Amino acid sequence: GCFVFKPSPKKKRVAQKAAKVFRERNDDTEDTELRFVTCQSLWNWIKREMEQIQEDLNKQLFDNLIGFLRRSHSEFQEKTTEWTCRMKSREIPTAALVLGVNVTDHDLTFRSLSEVLQNSVTPYIALLEAKDCSGIKNLMQKLMGQLMNCYIDVDSLEDEDCVQVSQNRIRCSMTSLINWYESVTKKTDSETPSKKRTSSSKHWQSPPVVVIFRDMESFTTKVLQDFIVISSQHIRELPLVLIFGIATSPMIIHSLLPHSVSSLLCIELFQSLSCKEHLSTIIEKLLLTTQFPFKLGEKVLQVLINIFLYHDFSVQNFIKGFQLCIVEHFYSQPVSVLCCQLVDAKKRVNSLSHDQCENIRRLPSFRRYVESQVSEKQIALLTEDNFLKEIIQKLLEDLHVYHENYISVLRCLHVFTSSLPKYPLGKQIRELHCACLENRVWETKEYESSLQLARMLNKSDLVTMLQQCVEIFVSSSGEEFDKTVEKLKEFLTQFQKLEAEAFQEQDVSVSSQKELQKKTDLYHLQKTLLELKESRRSKKLTKFEMLRFEVVDYIDSLVRNYLVPADHKTLHEIVYFNSASVLRGHLNAAPRIALHTALNNPYCYLKNQALKSDGGSISNKAPDICIVYKLHLECGRLINLVDWLEAFSTVVMAVEGPNADAAASDQVDNTIHARFIRAVSELELLGFIKPSKQKTDHVARLTWGGC
Amino acid sequence: MPNLEHPAYPAATLLHLEGLVPCRESQVSMLLSIFGERQQFSFPSIFIYGHTSSGKTYVMQTLLNTLQLPHVFVNCVEYFTSRLLFEEILIQLHGSSETEQTSHVPCDNFNDFVRLFKQAVASQELQDQTVYIVLDRAEQLREMEANILPAFLRLQELTDRNVTVVLLSEIVWELFRPNTGCFEPLTLYFPDYSIGHLQKILSQNHPPNYSADFYAAYINILLGVFYMVCRDLKELQHLAVLNFSKYCEPVVRGEANERDTRKLWKNIEPHLKKAMQTVYLREISSSQWERLQHDNREPGQLKGLSAHTHVELPYYSKFLLIAAYLASYNPVRTDKRFFLKHHGKIRKTNFMKKHEKTSNHLLGPKPFPLDRLLAILYSIVDNRVAPTANIFSQITSLVTLQLLSVVGHNDQLDGPRYKCTVSLDFIRAVAR
Asked: Is residue A641 part of a domain?
């Protein structure tokens, strides 16, 4: 029997603990529980959505891989005796899976890959990592361990006694693996018919054995070579398929394996979606929808995107960051209790307590709103809770409508800006989104230049863009866009009319050109050319151009109406998370800077009033290491230990300074000496100094820059 | 060609054997005379060497199987420890009859092996026959314990049984000889197949629905293209099969008959050349090649493995890699000149010492400390870079991607030194 863990109590305990932590910080305890629950449910919802998105994104790749696996051992299935099959050397089918440099994401991809394969192709999957496979022996051990265990999983522990043979006692050689494979496949063949039906519906008679090398780059050449040579000798008995997980480029196969080995492989290339596209999809589906009540502020989004683009390319880390934002928002913002679906939010507004109302009154955006009202209303808002609640409900509704409109108009604007040369407002919709969140986009230079460029678009582009915009507005849920759609459609019909007219015009111009060709006289030619030029200049604004201006102006008006930055909206604090500095502190740790701060300004971490210093001076109450550190900052590359000790003792003795004349004596107190030595060795441990042999009694500084 | 003759074996068997090992008759007859008759003691150890696919393994296997001599055939790559090797030999000796029982008899050292070997010979009643132990890829034996190779060489003496050990290897005996000296085996060289041999062997297995002459003409063309780059019999056979359907195409369509060699040559030759650049190098796999042939498409549509050289890296990783490249290929002295705004005057005279005139690229990357890498990084990135944990973790991830490599021990925490392992072309692509 198998021992079943019951993870639920543990999880509950963890959750309770988290809730407690949540509660501890805030003094108004009434809604923390609710906030915690909201946060949890929101995150779970987002997580589910995210998993779905990732599954869809990987589907194409996985389908290709499954097709490849099916194909790869079809000969093995059919056992053909055809001439070609007999003569051809059997190569090991190999899939080179290029996954990109975001190694942290690979874990998830491989996990879902093996899940998919297990469900559709084969139960025999081994996932090997380079760190476990330093030699061929370890590799074989790992491989056999995984394969034989997976067999146990499948057959629900029927025959324990036979499998209980410990790993060491199994001879880890290919022959025993083949024997195992034969016995396993035979067993499934001879099983009871009812069982057979279930198993054969999922896998075939002899499913391939898939070996996944997770990080191809890190494997040593010898191990790989040996493994490939060994398995190629048994490929006829054991239908093996290799999958190489490659982070850089498939060239690595050729640089790792010599030709004699790579000629044993039948390598096909599979490329996963690039991580940038992956991120765009995630942003599109998570941030640019009205589905989720929680929103990211401009700076926060920028921080997350920067970490992605500048540092790791890891979508997982981006999602983790997003999760952190959610938790931090619900944890630190008391009014976040209203950050939920509109219907729930309205209910919650009704049950707000007086304190919570006060919290809302304190919000800067709400204050701004109050100030803009007439005086009686101001008083009502600030004193009557019930009236306030009504207003809040209305404002929340406004906010919701704003979001709906915002997204549609943003997409529409993106249709225009993404096709302009040089992309003044960015190629990706996320850049446009950031620009719109930051401040009024129509006041920026980039917007102006992109409008100017839009005024020079040609007709066919303009028409397709308008059509796209119509589609966007039609599919959006906002009710206000009926007029917009009508207007846009009107534009489209006008364009079509123009086209018809242009057709006739073209005839005219063609005829005029024909005239031009007739005349061979140089004087006349010049004259007509001039005329033509003149007419063109005077006719500067054709109907098409007029219409184009109109369209662009209309889009401009839409932008001005709907793309107001979110922090101009009242009550935006409820749904927007804006503290970028907190996030940066958590995600972009700076160990050196933190160390410097700790040593230079110990108050920052110790929070002891006595340590509160006014900058330059060195307080003698600080820990010894801080004093030593500050003193060492004043030195050059080499530090004289004696001088250093003297300075240290002066600082430490400063407290007794006036009354004790012991300071005058040359002898340094033994305890101070010991303290000094200890502090210096601590600094050495932290890597600021090292002993030097250039001069006696000197140490060398390892950092540069003074105070 | 000398016919195989040996008094101990029937002539029919020998004739059959001769048909199976074309172009290796002299070696086989040599081996037969060394082996002698079944009950006779043979030479204790024989060392056979020759290039890849010169028929060593194949000849030994066919010889022993056709004559039904008791033998054990072990690949030393597959049984990578001495223990596995011993156990495999014993298991094969016991035959399939008692596998279950004997599979768990531990055999850890040579002493045990000799003892168990004697038992096995006795139980299988092989005392009056020569037992052959063939160790393929014998060069692996050198990596096992020091006593294994010498002991195998004089196994006959150690076990006092009628046994001959045959070692097969691609390298010469001189590279095997241990320092302490050992019993010298009888060495036998298998020369490479000549082009005539290859032609003969490859044409032997013609497809059933085409005549032998037709196939031989095809092999002739194939060898004309590939003989310059590849003499590996297995590989050639593989390529022959892959491309044969294309060769037959005009015949199948009725545009040419089987004798129309010139037309057929014109059809196949460019195709084979393309195959040389793609399939032979494993740029595209043979199954993809077959599918292409089947659909009659141009292989140009399918990009080979080396077409995908571009690696997308995060912003700072790019700069880190460039900085590492600069640190690896520029001498330390020039850093000040290249990366400082107010560097001193450059003394043109004797700035370049003589040995530095050779390109640094020929000398390969030099190691550099972490601090230098970061200093160069700060000077090549426009805006300020905070030395965050993310930057440091990127260096490690570049190491795991094998774009940088750590010099010295992995566990050295302070002052790690790195080398940049990417080429100039790669850096150019990154820097663009």
From this structure: yes
